[in-house]
UniProtKB/TrEMBL annotation:
It is an enzyme of class 2 (transferase). It comes from Clostridium scindens (strain ATCC 35704 / DSM 5676 / VPI 13733 / 19). The keyword Lipid biosynthesis does not apply. The lineage of its organism: Bacteria, Bacillati, Bacillota, Clostridia, Lachnospirales. This is N-acetylhexosamine 1-kinase. Keywords: Kinase, Transferase. The gene is nahK.
Amino acid sequence: MEHVTQKQRDEVVAHFKYKGILIDERPYGSGHINDTFLLTFEIAEMGQLKVILQRMNKEVFSNPVELMENIVGVTSYLRERIIENGGDPERETLNVIPTVDDKPYYLDSYGDYWRSYKFITDATSYDKVENPQHFYQSAVAFGNFQRLLADYPADTLHETIVGFHDTKARFATFKKVVEEDVMGRAASVKKEIQFVLDREDIADYFSDLQAKGEIPLRVTHNDTKLNNIMIDNKTGKGICVIDLDTVMPGLAMNDFGDSIRFGASTAAEDEQNLDKVSCSMDLFDLYAKGFIKGCAGKLTKKEINLMPMGAKTMTFECGMRFLTDYLQGDVYFKIHRDGHNLDRCRAQFKLVEDMEKKWYTMQDIVKKYSNS
């Protein structure tokens, strides 16, 4: 995508329902996908108002119109539930600012799609787990997201990235990529390839249960990292789930599992020293406690019991995706060094092995909270 020019931004700003005089605009946040700006408006006697303006990445999200339909549907519904519960809808969900012709997005003269949200004041999102309490709060907030959307008809949402967590389909793709071996790299990673092939049962597990109707389709976030929760600066509570681009039909266990993969690991996602990589049972315990509390009885007993499987599946899937990308020549994930995707893959597989060793502990932790 081309760099955003001032001229382009001026055109876009003129087409949203903003009030007051624009006094400041600057790039914002640490996201890798969309271009995000923070705008500050001066409104006569009322002081200043901040808004987020975002150019959507059309390479990643090929249908921005459907994506915004999802976001408007889910945030409008959340707004109603939050008001019913006596909460503050201005801070506890994203609020989409419409364009001058009342659309949730603006298509500019360059062919780019833009959207705007009210900025959530006095709250912070954290890129990594510096404080275990933040991790717990993110668990409660993502669980609460499940609770509030439990009755939303998941099948009415568009799939913004088709087959995003279809582990079975990703396994089939992986086998095909190994066979084609376009970069001639397969021979050097036989051990990693075998690791995946030995675990086909993980890839099939959830889709087989779904096919039998044993686990429900739910509205899921699909990117449940800590930095997608706004934490209130005063109370320290997780108040709002953000970055709803990947909200679509999915499985609650996968939302839980992705958080564990990312947040309960004792090392970075691309750690080269595998001795440092393990799944912290303290953090797993903390997150399971918060997530189950946040869901407040809205998940089935089976879904709760399958949470460890969600953690293993998401970590396995992610490692498999890194390995697939390595074999294809690093075309999807950005790399910062040779073999970067291979390092990422090995760290994920080490985490899977560690979970396998701690399997009964993980199951006991989840049972402890499901019965409380």
